[in-house]
């Protein structure tokens, strides 16, 4: 039996990501992916049990390399609050509106009804990001900047506010290639709404 290697697994994920972007989930085939990787389908199935399993790995890789670093940058930011929160929100909103991200979300929703891929992705991706965000907000509560409450709930509320003007319209194809100005204004409104609800002394006007 061939020895599995992490390098080979990562190479498969990278190629599969390209194929999924080009053909979509339904149009992509394990045969095409294995041909581009350079090997047999048997080898491919030695790493991933199904196309759904492979797509789950592609989605997880995207979360690890794109989204999670944004949460990590927030908790290590040297910028003062709320500027750090606004910069984080802007980055999250922009990334969430990118076509590649939208394609991944659409596919995850489609396959979640027939597999555990969606649950696995949420627990190992968004859930971890929200946990980091909750820790950041908890520290602000300890400092008396935010009202004391359940930081996990506050993190969910902030996430929902940041997505409120863009996620569903993007998923349904209504919002395409939004302008930087629109995304900045959307982020501004979301952060301001969060501060109005959670800040001990909500800043007047726009969040800086």
UniProtKB/TrEMBL annotation:
Residues 6-66 form the HTH tetR-type domain. It holds the Pfam family TetR_C_7. Signal peptide: none annotated. The keyword DNA-binding applies. Residues 29-48 bind DNA. InterPro entries: Homeodomain-like_sf, HTH-type_TetR-like_transc_reg, HTH_TetR, TetR_C_Proteobacteria. Keywords: DNA-binding. This is TetR/AcrR family transcriptional regulator. It comes from Pseudomonas kulmbachensis. The lineage of its organism: Bacteria, Pseudomonadati, Pseudomonadota, Gammaproteobacteria, Pseudomonadales.
């Amino acid at each position: 039996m061939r020895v599995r290697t992490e390098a080979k697994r990562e190479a498969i994920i990278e190629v599969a990501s390209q194929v999924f972007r080009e053909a979509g989930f339904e149009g992509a085939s394990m045969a095409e992916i294995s041909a581009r990787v350079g090997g047999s389908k048997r080898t491919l199935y030695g790493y991933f049990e199904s196309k759904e399993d492979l797509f789950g790995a592609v989605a997880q890789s995207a979360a690890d390399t794109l989204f999670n670093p944004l949460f990590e940058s927030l908790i290590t930011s040297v910028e003062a609050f709320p500027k750090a929160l606004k910069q984080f929100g802007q980055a999250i909103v922009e990334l969430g509106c990118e076509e590649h991200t939208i394609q991944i979300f659409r596919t995850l929703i489609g396959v979640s009804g027939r597999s555990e891929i969606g649950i696995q992705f949420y627990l190992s991706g968004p859930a971890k990001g929200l946990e980091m965000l909750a820790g950041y907000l908890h520290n602000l509560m300890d400092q008396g900047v935010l009202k004391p409450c359940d930081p996990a709930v506050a993190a969910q509320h902030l996430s929902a506010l940041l997505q409120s003007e863009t996620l569903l319209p993007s998923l349904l194809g209504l919002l395409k290639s939004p302008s930087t100005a629109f995304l900045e204004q959307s982020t501004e409104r979301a952060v301001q709404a969060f501060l109005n609800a959670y800040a001990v002394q909500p800043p007047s006007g726009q969040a800086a």
